[in-house]
Each structure stands twice: as structure tokens, then as C-alpha cells.
Amino acid sequence: MAKRTKKGRRRHDAAFKNLYAFALMAGDLMEVVLSPALFETLDFSTLERRPAEWFGPRLEQRVGDGVWRVRRCGGGSLILPVEYQRRPDRLMPLRVSTYVSLLLEDLARQGELDPDGRLPMVQPVVLHHGMRPWRAPTDFAGISASGVSDWPGLKLVDLGRVRVEDLPRRNAVTLQIEIHQGALAHDPEGVLGRLSECLGGPKHRNLRIAFVEWIWQSLAPELPKVPKLKRRLREIAELGEFQEMKSFMLKSMVDHWLARGVTEGMARARADERALLCQLAGRKFGGQAAERLSAQIEGETDPQRLAEVGDWIIDCGTEAEFLTRAQSARVASPESAH
């Protein structure tokens, strides 16, 4: 494997940080690292991203990777500082504790502590994505002479070695860990299916794009044998977009052609809908699927049958599955040819 250049490492780090700039990723990370009892007390309508830049007493600058804060239903709040680490660092507990101290001092200066001036609960997290296993300490006890410490330790998530089976399902961080561990190479359809369940639809389009960028910057150089990798990444970005595009464009067509007369307008709208379905099939499965579908639905005007075709495009994961579905369904009825 080729050694990553300094520029490549910067892009990788930026892609990683960008992924955790999304509230969904922060909330799902909390589900991964917190106890279920604590996680259930969080009010995610209050989840907010906090600044990760602080200044010490002599104006020395410290910059963390990410900080999120969320209120607890029973009162108080939880702060989650997140650090991304490529190499194990023996003094990581000390580094993180410095960030936490500066963060809490900053909250105190701004009058943003919890009620009655209490400190928020803080749970530092380190996301390790390096080649070497993390064998460094995760608390002060591991680096102090006494071997004991009351300072809370950091939560370590070793992306390459954590057991996916132990993680929550329908969780974006779990998906990232699966992909990091090679699922895109050995189970691309499963990855696409789980991404669709978790991040499908227009609402999460920007997060899916961030996922694609992270995969490209982090894993693409190491996954040269993934079949049709660029196509897979495009599919990830477009997950859940087909139905909305179809509905929006069809409405525009109908509105336009109805102005030219109901009969002519609906006929032309159906023709345009058939063309759109073929275009979407081509974008998702390739030109052969578009050609086969075009021949299959030629002359079809039944809106219910055409809607079924749109469902096939969304539901089918591969070109072969789509073509088999189209072949067996026999879309065009004898009546529609007259």
C-alpha cells in the first residue's frame, strides 16, 4: 500500500472532521459510547455544536477536533469532546484533560454552566483510525506513578478493531465502522441497504455526500479492488433521491401539459413519465437496463403500473435484480397498446 502524502493526510483529516460536523453523527456517536441509561436521558432537540478552540492563561491556542453539547431531561447537560487520532498517544488522557479544562473555563466565563453553577457532565471520546492497535492508556491511572486517578477516562473507539456486532443497529457511526473495516469491498449491497435505511432521502443528502468524501479520501486508495467503486459512491450520494425526483418532475410535467388540454396533456405527461423512469433506471443500473425498460413500458399509460416501475428502481439493489423484476412483471398490458 502506498504511503499517504502529507496533503492526503490533511484531506483525510478534514473529511473525517466534516463527517462529525453533522448532528446525526454526534447523536449516533453518543449512542455508541454512552450507557443506555444515560443515553435515554438526553434531549436531542437541544443538541448543539460548540466551538473547539480555546486560549490558555498566556493566550496559547489549543484546538480540538469537535465538541457537542446536549441537555439532559432530568436537568444539567452532557458535553462530548471528540478527538480523531491516527496514532496511539501515551499522553492522550493528559491532552484531552487540558482541552476539557479549557472548555469548562470558557463555559464559566460565558455564564453557560449548568444550573446553580454546576459543571456539565463531560465524556471525552477518541476515534482511532490508524493501522496499529491502540495500546496506549485511556485514563490518568495508566500514566501516573500511583496507578490511580479520580479523573474520568476517555472513551476509545478503535474503528478498525471494535466488534460491529456489539454496536447499535441503524446507526451512522456503526455504518462508518463497517465501511472502515472493509464492508464496502465484501458486502456492497448490504452497505447500500443499511445506508438507505439510516441516511436515505433528501434530508440526509449532505451527510451522504460527506460520507462519500470520507470514503474517497480515507479508503479509496486502499480499496482498489472494490468493483465499480465510483458507481457505488454515486449510489450512496443518491440514496433515496429517485422517488422525490420522479414525483417532483412528474408534477411539473402534468402542470405544464394540462395547460394545453386535459387529454393531450395527460398523454404527453405519461410519455414524459416513461422517459423519466428510463432515465432513472439508466442512472442507477446502466444503459442496458434503460433500453430494456423502454421497450417494456412503451405505450403504457396506467399510472399505477408506472408507479410500480418507480418502486422497482428504488427497491432493487442490482441491475440483474431490476431486469428480472421487469421481465417477470410484464408491465405493458394488452389494453394499453390500443
Structural topology:
Blueprint: H1 6-19, H2 23-33, H3 36-39, E1 42-50, E2 53-55, E3 61-63, E4 66-72, E5 77-85, H4 92-109, E6 121-122, E7 125-128, E8 155-158, H5 172-180, H6 183-186, H7 188-199, H8 205-218, H9 229-238, H10 241-258, H11 262-285, H12 287-296, H13 303-315, H14 319-329
Parallel strand pairs: 5-6, 5-7, 7-8
Antiparallel strand pairs: 1-4, 2-3, 4-5
Helix pairs in contact: 1-8, 5-7, 8-9, 10-11, 11-12, 11-13, 12-14
Kindly describe this structure.
There is one protein chain. This protein is α/β, with parallel strands linked by helices. Strands 1, 4, 5, 6, 7 and 8 form a six-stranded mixed beta sheet that branches. Strand 4 and strand 5 form a beta hairpin. Helix 11 runs parallel beside helix 13. The longest helix has 24 residues. It is elongated and about 80 Å long. The termini are far apart.
Structural key phrases:
single chain, two-stranded antiparallel sheet, six-stranded mixed β-sheet, 14 helices, 51% helix, 338 residues, disordered C terminus, alpha/beta
